[in-house]
Design goal:
By secondary structure, the protein is an alpha/beta fold. It contains 9 helices and 12 strands. The strands form 4 sheets. Strands 2-1-3-4-5-10 form a 6-stranded parallel beta sheet, sandwiched between helices. The protein has a two-stranded parallel sheet with strand order 6-9. It has a two-stranded parallel ribbon with strand order 7-12. α3 (65-86) packs parallel to α4 (109-128).
Length: 271
């Protein structure tokens, strides 16, 4: 029996987790390798499953709701069923702050599908005794975050625009805030939950810093850090854009985990 299974181990977050786990104790499965977890889960079992595989784009889910549901809901259901049959000790599920939408619940198929998967994780804990925990990631960023990918943030977009010597776009007044969390903290939270001694029983936790940062604050930081003058381009606010998002970080802190990378330190790595 292997110790870990990482689904989506070639994705932005999954690849970073996979790289820090012991090679000889870890299995990876990813659609990018042609392995669909819906019907190609490994024959070898594992003690802990990090279920990160997903089609994580909100925009893509709006255009392709049923296809996204297949991978994000049915895919999770298959992983849970496999884990139950294989005697897995714990499933750590990668969820998203998209389940909150504008504060009243999901506002996209992606957010709805993550919420549906969370509920099935909870059900498996209560009905079958499979210990599960759901981690709701907020705005994940890093200095090597791909621009234009499913996890792309304004930080990755601005890094790319600086590389291309293009104006940096600001939507609306720039006062919208997000809880930006460095990918290193995301990996840390996953490992913490995998090793936690007590049962989770399908509980959900926000994974964030607890600090909201406005677009204008990041703009000021970039302007002060770069030696060359940066050009800015303001456009109208995007329809349906969430103005402010707030995370509840106290629950994970009570268990013993909190983020370590401050936004100023993370931005210094990026710019």
């Amino acid at each position: 029996m292997k110790k870990y299974l990482v689904t989506g181990h070639r994705g932005f977050i999954g690849s970073k987790l996979y790289d820090v786990l012991p090679t000889d104790e870890t299995i990876g499965i990813d659609l990018k390798d042609g392995h669909d977890l819906i019907d190609q889960l490994p024959s070898e079992s594992a003690e802990v499953v990090f279920h990160m595989a997903a089609l994580p784009s909100v925009e893509y889910s709006v255009r392709n709701p049923s296809y996204t549901l297949k991978h994000n809901v049915l895919g999770t259901s298959r992983v849970l069923e496999w884990a139950k049959k294989q005697g897995v000790k714990r499933v750590v599920f990668s969820s998203s702050a998209a389940v909150y939408g504008n504060g009243l619940g999901p506002s996209s198929p992606y957010g709805l599908h993550k919420l549906m998967a969370e509920k099935e994780c909870k059900l498996y804990s209560e009905l079958y005794g499979l210990d599960t925990v759901c981690l709701r990631y907020f705005n994940v960023y890093s200095e090597d975050q791909p621009y234009g990918g499913a996890y792309s943030t304004v930080i990755s977009a601005w890094m790319e625009m600086i590389r291309q010597d293009k104006p940096l776009r600001i939507d609306g007044d720039g006062e919208q805030t997000r809880d930006y969390i460095h990918v290193d903290d995301i990996i840390s939270a996953n490992i913490f939950c995998a090793n936690y001694a007590g049962p989770f029983g399908g509980e959900t936790y926000d994974v964030a810093t607890g600090v909201n940062t406005s677009i204008n604050r990041i703009k000021s930081f970039i302007s002060s850090e770069l030696e060359t003058e940066t050009k800015w381009h303001r456009v109208p606010e995007r329809t349906g854009d969430v103005k402010h998002s707030t995370a509840r970080t106290i629950d994970l802190k009570k268990l013993g985990w909190s983020s370590k990378v401050k936004i100023t330190d993370g931005l210094k790595k990026c710019f």
